[in-house]
Amino acid sequence: MKASDIPGGPKSGEILCPLTDIVDGRAKEFIYRAGDEVREIFIQRMGNEVYAYENSCPHAYIPLNMNAGVFTEKSGKYFICQNHGALFDIKTGQCLGGPCNGQSLTSVEINLKDGNIIAC
Length: 120
Ligand code: FES
Description:
CATH architecture: 3-layer Sandwich
Structural class: mainly beta
Strand order of the largest sheet: 1-9-8
Bound molecules: FE2/S2 (inorganic) cluster
CATH class: Mainly Beta
CATH topology: Rieske Iron-sulfur Protein
Number of domains: 1
Largest sheet: 3 strands, antiparallel
């Protein structure tokens, strides 16, 4: 899904934030509203790479995290659902074990250009 497809979301080409706004290994959340609809995405930084997803588990449609910016388990290798312990691949969003096994987080298309994270 393109970030610009989210109701109330950013326009294509809009700068979301500089890469340096996100601590390596952590994420930044963005909340968008259109009428009664509220959608949240998070952008995870892994070194100079970024991965963006809707913050909504595919099985219960609730956020993965409980603390701002913290989406990975202790090793930092996987996303984890803080409610159920389900693990997700950071690069693909696929659930590797847990109630949503085999399902995937909804990825959000973004670009990294000149040190800025940009909505597609
Ligand atoms: S909400 Fe789906 S694994 Fe926790």
